[in-house]
Amino acid sequence: MKKSYVIGGAVIILALTMAMYSFKSTLTSYVTVREAKASKQSVQVAGIVVKGTDRYDLKSKNLLFTLREDGGDEMKVEYDGPRPGNFDNVTKVVAIGKYEPQKQTFLAKELLVKCPTKYEGRVKGE
Amino acid sequence: MTNLGELTIWLGLIAICISSGCYWVLNSREDDTLALNVARYSFTGFVAFMTLASIFLMLAILKHEFIYNYVTSYSSRDLPLQYLISSFWAGQEGSFLLWVLLGSWLGIFLMHQTGEMEPQVMFIYNLNNLFLTILLIKQSPFKMLAAAPADGQGLNMLLQDPWMVIHPPVVFLGYAAFTVPFAFAIAGLWRREYDKWIRPALPWTVFAFLSLGAGIIIGGYWSYKVLGWGGYWGWDPVENASLLPWLAGAALMHGMILQQSRHKLRKTNFILAALSFLLIIYCTFLTRSGILADFSVHSFQDLGITGWLVFFMFGFLAITLWFFGTRVREIPISEKGAAFSYFSREFGFIAAMIVLSLSAVLTGVGTSAPLITRLLEKASKVSTKFYVDTNLPLALLMVLLLSFVPLLAWGKNDFSKLSRKLIWACLGAVVSGVITLYFGYPGIAVLLLSIFAGAAVGMNLQLTIKLIRKKITMSAGAIAHLGVGLMFVGIVASSAYDSSDKVQLAQGTPQSTLGYNLKFNGPEFYQEPRGVRLDLPVDVKKGNTEFIARPDIRSENNPDGQGRRFSRPHIRRGLLSDLYLSPVDFKPGGEENRSAGKQLELKKQEKIKIQDYEITFVGFDVSGMMGQKEGQEVSVGADLLVSYKSENPVNVKPIITKVQEGWSASSVRLPGPVEAFVTLAQIRASDGLIVLDYQGIPSGPGKSAEETPPSFIAEVSIKPGMTVLWLGTFLILLGACISIARRWPSP
Predict the structure, then answer these.
(1) Looking at this predicted complex, what is its ipTM?
(2) The model's pTM
């Protein structure tokens, strides 16, 4: 039984080390537009969709829009995926991906949208 | 008006307190029949009050009593019956009520199965009910508005799907059921009976595993069928919240079987029973406290119960630790340590439990990343790659174990005798490996996963056939494990070998992609209660098969002025692969311009002609930015000269104003008889450029040579193995059903 503990322990420690490494390398943190433009890693940026800028590029068939964050900094975002259901009326979007300096565009792999929630009305009305 | 719903919940709280108190008394005075009767009757009272409260809520929804905030928020007059019913559990408050309700019903069955352990089991079980009832009072679905609105806000369109009607009840049944093994485990520690709790608790554990598993699978199936992103699992916190306790529960299930047959792992099973229950509270905390609000597509918002959730989490943790800590020294370790062998079913079970637990822990660490990193620096989340990286090797180990462990006996095994029986497993491995390589080398880990999954399928298929012939109730494990193998075959096929292409389909023009010939037949509009549905029928041809795909885009206008758009894919299922056609964006053609509106870009001094209009962009008007005082709105205008049918040009000045969140623009009417408008959509001062939205400019009949037909961009994908995947998940659940049937105590 002793030997089994050693082997089992070693396997688990190896697994945890690998997991730790993966954890660190896949962390995406919230950054500002300016930080995103400088970063080589995958990051997430929150902001609003500048009205009227969202359209589908006919060549790449990706969704393009301009994202503006609180401070007023803007960047172009390209997203390879369907337009989120409530995209037209979102208060905030979170784009997750990497900035591509050559295209001067943020290539989003994931797009989270925050719609005006029903809960907000409740808190005020209570 | 008295609030009957809230009143019944309060009465339920009183009943559950009395019941818990009596069970507490019974703990020390076992033959106090009065206390026993009061405990049981008041529990029954609790069940009755919760049922009554649920009936109140259901009636309020069915009768459209919009005075209740919950009814207003999640239902409306136009909903059909099945979605009125499902608005009961569309929101947080209602789903808590559902959780309590299902938990109370399960308690009725549980009460009569516990025998001597009843006081302790029911006391712990009641603690959980008490906790949920307090949360229910904190966020009651019966809160009233000052005045009832005429209609409700309706149910989120995405939830208007038959699978979403049954998904929450199934998940919460699983959530409620995982309390039972926990209650039994603590009762076992409490009574210092370290083996006796296993037999009655095991069928409940399998039941909890079954219903939570069914809930997870239904959720995945819905996501694939409705959301249109082409996947079935996104490692979102809300999904993980049900996966974590499920994985821990699967480990617990195996541990309990091992303890029942080999009298081992007593301590481990206590820990696993506690872990799967605590994970449910922890995950409820993660998804309902709003703590992950910035990191999930659909985390719930904070409703002010975070404190309670944390309190209960630590409360239950403390109870577990106290009982475990005070008993751990006297829990007997395995009776005969000698019979252990590395090449045995016992070792296979332990390895499987380690794999399942590790998967739960690592996925849990990933899901908690925003919490962990918040303590160190900035809150961050891990990308889905983390989950794949960590779970892929574990999945590999799991199917490897499944490809030979089912053959082994508990004790010592002779390899030479068994090797002949491994033929099916080897056959499965070879077939799967060859097919995988035929379609392309997917990387070593995925190749191994597919080979071992094939072996697991072969092994367990043979075993299933053998055991079904012998006695069907013995085949539970084999069927479930066959399902696991098939599921991983499906996962490999669908994630490593899917092919996808985006095409723009114009009406009437055939296009071919991925071997399919597609022709868009033109949009069809249908009026729906809250908006329109746009059907996009496409003729699909490949060889001899021909069918019409009908993906759609639905748009919904809510009374609160929010519009939403949802694309629904069309899925053509096949045994080997699915064709998945998802609309991405619809472009109405030339004739649709009038209503749809369009955009144009104008440089300074540029003149542009659209139909009867001539628009010149003269320059910016920045007077709104000058002399700007604090708090005053900033606005920018664009001076335009517009002439209609070569009449004298008229000055038009659309303005864009900076408001709190972004910019707001107002439309300006253009000269001429037609109701046409322009809006300043965007200014790019650095480029001396403006973007105008224009609406209502008719396209003159025949005048415009390049009238475009309606078209839409579609994502077309071929997803192999989906049918195999769903079949696999079905078999896992079927195996669990058979296992329950075998283990359920006969009355």
Answers:
(1) 0.80
(2) 0.83
